[in-house]
């Protein structure tokens, strides 16, 4: 796996991703190995089935929504860049002073982008509005999870 | 009119105050008389003891051979009598404080108790009386401290605690070390000055003293924080720190006490000290966990001896404490871990009544203990021999304050980057300022061996420190906190929205963590959960079904549901239409309008409620220290809600029972006065094919309640599908039929919708019915065994209930 990673992920790509998402070098490498381990078809992209093969994600009530979040509109495959782009939303928020010299677009893990990501989780039909039904559906999903008693030590 | 009422109130309170004060003084004075009898054998009012029949009378002229009609033998009852009087006195003080509410807002109870103790101590001192030897080390550590710690451990909010456990341990261990060594060294530096006449205190003794006074006492600090209501993070850190720094204190204390005799400290001693710390800490935890598991396992078999179930909780935790004391390891950690471990499993195994009993008794013992401790602190302050040295005492105060502040600052700087919720400067100030010392440090000072030549000085200094921190810091912390606006727990913020979305986000994060293969917080939780389910629950729980926790969860959620409903709609259904009208469009109007509204409301609220269990967790965890996790308000709301719902639906019922009767009858489900278990069961069996019935019977219990709860439960889930509005009416036919049949027995209104209500209430009622059982005069014959029989049924009944519905929802 190590050799595969090194041949398929070039240094300049790592640099690009680092600049775009803010992940560190080791994090990117690690996530790349995770990406390749998920990528059963070995074609450098992940499809929805690959995601669904993760067992914990399958039983997570928000699993399919999370998966959907990785796939931008209309596409069915996500490459590593897209993968990292989505994951970048989950990095901790950094202080603004460090990012003053960043390009015009806000970093992917800024508050606004995080909120946008969360919004898109609720907004299933991607009309940029959360209808009451969509909200209800989220609640039901979480409801189902509870019956499976995943959480404990309440 | 209002002013008149107000003035009446005021006069009443003043009258009570006067009476209370009088009482205090008289009880205080009375006790002064009592201890004297041991000095002389003869009283003016006491005849010779009633052994007068056997022995020759000292005054042979009078009453030879007569039976003494009235004798008094004080010496026999002296100890328990005095103990009771002291407890009563302290409790009267507590009552007195709460009569005039405003006092406790500004002055924490601990201060007031110490003040009263000081007064009584002054009285006793002026009549040259010795206070009871309560604050000796043995009595304190073996009898007075365990209940308090048990209370802290039992009601510890586990979730925030485990989320913050790194921070807590960091502050507890490193913070205490920092404090001790800092204070010790600075005091030693002070001692070098000839001016202050304390040159004979060497380094070890200083360090010993410092280790005593550096421990933050949870009792005092939380007393203050509860009233002020600081935010969850500070609360849990102070809480945990106060509890866990005992390990460090024990080690340091024993190490320095040991070394105080020795002329010099070698490096091996330091190394041994570190090793001892680990032994103490980890040993305490291990013992606690061991006893916790044993207790949980025992509670598995107590289904037939319900009356003594609470005993096991207390005995095992006390045993853990004592065994840890035996090995001189941290008994506080032992009892805390025992309580934490035990609570989860025991509360599943025992009956509802036992659960309530345990909680009440734990709280009661803790409150009594705490009251007594503070009280005696005040008393003993006056009556001990003090050695006052201005310099030493002042510098002690100064250094204690200084080093705590510095310690918090430095430690927070180190630990903040590792936390998601960081401590702001204000939080840090709150942490530092909230470092009150309390009775533990005092008791430790008392246990100093007499080989320490300046023992009295140390005692004086520690008392001074305690009084200073409790009074000055305790009283001032409230205005300061309000002034600098530390983040307070804002319970109003826990709206439904917040809770739901927090939950959603948690799921999201968990999912992404799994996606990354990352071992996040939730990963460990998940692992433990699996271990818990697979192994621990099988062994320790009597009826181990995975959903049993869901049942209790559901109950909790229903409580929250009730609260929300009450808050939003004033307990009146007529306010509900606003919600209903929103969700109205898709529903067909096949159902009668009344049922429709309430059904939909319930559906909405149930959906929301099921995601809100964390509300209850958070808010109840941080209610007042002196009350149980607050059930009473929810119960009351629940009752009112029931009453109002029933009122609004009365028109459709063919019962003419008054609201009171209905509410009470509801609690005992099918069992009406004069009813019997078997007849109720047979009644149920006669009802048409209700699929859940065989599940019920297979579970073995006789959960009449669950039949009622079962049906509506599944109906609830079908409703949430939003696509089958026709189902509810169909399902409604069943309970309708059942109800019709049982209506003769005086059951609840047969309308379908109230079924749903009552189902939800049924579960809650099971929570509360035992609590209410005592208050119900209506069904004395059934009270005795209906709840008890229901208890084993509770878990089992709930499970098929939820299993059923979970299957349904899976199918959707």
Set out the fold topology.
The complex is a heterodimer of chains A (154) and B (812).
Chain A: H1 2-8, H2 11-21, H3 25-38, E1 45-46, H4 48-52, H5 55-59, H6 63-70, E2 78-79, H7 80-88, H8 111-122, H9 132-147
Antiparallel strand pairs in A: 1-2
Chain B: H1 2-33, H2 74-99, H3 101-106, H4 109-126, H5 137-154, H6 158-163, H7 165-191, H8 203-213, H9 218-228, H10 232-261, H11 267-299, H12 309-326, H13 331-349, H14 352-383, H15 390-415, H16 425-433, H17 439-446, H18 455-484, H19 496-516, H20 521-540, H21 548-569, H22 577-582, H23 593-610, H24 613-621, H25 632-649, H26 659-667, H27 677-686, H28 692-699, H29 704-720, H30 727-742, H31 752-773, H32 780-783, H33 786-811
Overview of this protein structure:
- Chain A: It is found in: Cell membrane; Cytoplasm; Nucleus.
- Chain A: This is Calcineurin-like EF-hand protein 1.
- The complex is a heterodimer of chains A (154) and B (812).
- Chain A has a single domain (11-91, 107-147), classed as Orthogonal Bundle (Recoverin, domain 1), CATH 1.10.238.10.
- In chain A, 56% of the residues lie in helices and 3% in strands.
- Chain A has 9 helices and 2 strands; from the N terminus they run αααβαααβααα.
- In chain A, helix 6 crosses helix 8.
- The model of chain A is unreliable at 1-7, 96-104 and 144-154 (pLDDT under 50).
- Chain B has 812 residues and is an all-alpha fold.
- Among the domains of chain B are: 133-484, Na+/H+ antiporter like fold, CATH 1.20.1530; 496-544, no CATH class.
- The two termini of chain B are 61 Å apart.
- The interface between A and B is large, with 35 and 45 residues.
């Amino acid at each position: 796996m190590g050799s595969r990673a090194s041949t398929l992920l070039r240094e300049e790509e790592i640099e690009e991703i680092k600049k775009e998402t803010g992940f560190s070098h080791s994090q990117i490498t690690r996530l790349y190995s995770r990406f390749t381990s998920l990528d059963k078809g070995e074609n450098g992209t992940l499809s929805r089935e690959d995601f669904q093969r993760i067992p914990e994600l399958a039983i997570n009530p928000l699993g399919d929504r999370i998966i959907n979040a990785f796939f931008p509109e209309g596409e069915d495959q996500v490459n590593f860049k897209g993968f990292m782009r989505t994951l970048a939303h989950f990095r901790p928020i950094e202080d603004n002073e460090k990012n003053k010299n960043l390009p015009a677009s806000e970093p992917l893990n800024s508050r606004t982008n995080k909120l946008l990501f969360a919004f898109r989780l609720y907004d299933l039909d991607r009309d940029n509005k959360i209808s009451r039904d969509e909200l209800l559906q989220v609640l039901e999903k979480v409801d189902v999870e509870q019956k499976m008693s995943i959480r404990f030590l309440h | 009119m209002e002013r008149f009422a107000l003035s009446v109130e005021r006069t009443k309170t003043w009258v009570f105050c006067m009476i209370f004060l009088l009482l205090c003084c008289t009880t205080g004075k009375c006790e002064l008389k009592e201890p004297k009898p041991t000095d002389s054998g003869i009283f003016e009012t006491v005849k010779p003891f009633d052994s007068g029949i056997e022995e020759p009378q000292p005054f042979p002229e009078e009453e030879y051979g007569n039976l003494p009609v009235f004798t008094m033998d004080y010496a026999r009852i002296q100890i328990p009598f005095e103990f009771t009087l002291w407890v009563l006195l302290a409790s009267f003080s507590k009552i007195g404080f709460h009569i005039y509410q405003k006092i406790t807002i500004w002055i924490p109870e601990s201060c007031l108790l110490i003040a009263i103790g000081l007064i009584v101590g002054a009285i006793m001192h002026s009549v040259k009386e010795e206070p009871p030897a309560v604050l000796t080390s043995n009595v304190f550590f073996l009898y007075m401290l365990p209940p308090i710690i048990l209370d802290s451990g039992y009601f510890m909010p586990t979730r925030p605690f485990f989320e913050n456990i790194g921070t807590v341990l960091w502050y507890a261990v490193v913070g205490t070390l920092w404090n001790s060594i800092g204070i010790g060294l600075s005091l030693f530096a002070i001692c070098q000055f000839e001016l202050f006449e304390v040159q004979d205190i060497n380094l070890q003794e200083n360090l010993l003293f410092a280790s005593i006074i550096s421990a933050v006492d949870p009792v005092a600090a939380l007393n203050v924080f509860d009233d002020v209501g600081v935010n969850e993070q500070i609360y849990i850190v102070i809480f945990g720190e106060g509890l866990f720094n005992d390990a460090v204190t024990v080690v340091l204390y024993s190490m320095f006490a040991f070394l105080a005799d020795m002329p010099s400290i070698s490096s091996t001693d330091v190394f041994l000290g570190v090793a001892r710390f680990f032994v103490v800490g980890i040993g305490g935890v291990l013992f606690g966990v061991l006893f916790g598991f044993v207790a949980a396992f025992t509670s598995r078999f107590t289904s037939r001896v319900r009356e003594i179930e609470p005993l096991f909780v207390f005995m095992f935790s006390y045993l853990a404490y004592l065994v840890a004391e035996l090995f001189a390891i941290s008994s506080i950690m032992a009892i805390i871990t025992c309580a934490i471990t035990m609570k989860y499993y025991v509360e599943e195994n025992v009956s509802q009544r036992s659960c309530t009993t345990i909680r009440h008794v734990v709280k009661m013992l803790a409150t009594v203990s705490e009251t007594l401790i503070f009280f005696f602190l005040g008393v003993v302050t006056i009556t001990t021999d003090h050695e006052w040295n201005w310099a030493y005492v002042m510098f002690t105060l100064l250094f204690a304050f200084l080093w705590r502040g510095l310690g918090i600052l430095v430690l927070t700087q180190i630990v903040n980057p590792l936390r998601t919720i960081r401590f702001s400067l204000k939080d840090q100030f709150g942490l530092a300022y909230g470092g009150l010392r309390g009775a533990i440090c005092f008791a430790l000072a008392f246990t100093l061996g007499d080989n320490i030549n300046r023992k009295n000085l140390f005692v004086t200094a520690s008392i001074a420190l305690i009084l200073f921190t409790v009074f000055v810091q305790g009283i001032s912390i409230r205005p300061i906190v309000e002034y600098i606006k530390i983040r307070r727990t804002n319970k109003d913020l826990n709206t439904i929205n917040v809770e739901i979305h927090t939950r959603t986000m948690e799921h999201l994060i968990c999912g992404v963590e799994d996606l990354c293969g990352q071992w996040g917080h939730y990963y460990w939780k998940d692992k433990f959960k699996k271990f818990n389910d697979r192994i621990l629950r099988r062994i320790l729980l009597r009826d181990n079904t995975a959903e049993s926790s869901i049942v209790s969860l559901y109950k909790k959620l229903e409580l929250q549901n009730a609260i929300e409903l009450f808050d939003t709609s004033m307990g009146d259904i007529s306010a509900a239409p606003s919600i209903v009208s929103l969700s109205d469009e898709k529903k067909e109007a096949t159902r009668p309008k009344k049922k429709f509204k309430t059904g939909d409301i319930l559906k909405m609220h149930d959906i929301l409620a099921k995601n809100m269990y964390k509300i209850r967790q958070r808010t109840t965890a941080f209610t007042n220290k002196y009350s149980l996790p607050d059930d009473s308000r929810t119960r009351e709301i629940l009752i009112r809600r029931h009453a109002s719902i029933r009122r609004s639906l009365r028109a459709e019922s063919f019962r003419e029972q008054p609201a009171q009767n209905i509410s009470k009858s509801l609690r005992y489900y099918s069992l009406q006065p004069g009813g019997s278990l078997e007849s109720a069961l047979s009644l149920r069996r006669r009802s048409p094919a209700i699929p859940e019935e065989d599940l019920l019977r297979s579970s073995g219990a006789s959960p009449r309640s669950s039949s009622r709860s079962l049906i509506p439960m599944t109906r609830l889930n079908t409703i949430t599908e939003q696509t089958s509005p026709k189902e509810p009416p169909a399902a409604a036919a069943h309970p309708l039929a059942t109800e019709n049949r049982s209506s003769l027995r005086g059951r609840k209104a047969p309308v379908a919708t109230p079924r749903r209500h009552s189902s939800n209430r049924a579960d809650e009622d099971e929570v509360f019915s035992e609590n209410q059982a005592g208050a119900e005069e209506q069904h004395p014959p059934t009270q005795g065994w209906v709840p008890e029989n229901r208890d084993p049924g509770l878990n089992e009944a709930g499970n098929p209930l939820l299993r059923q519905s979970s299957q349904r929802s899976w199918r959707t």
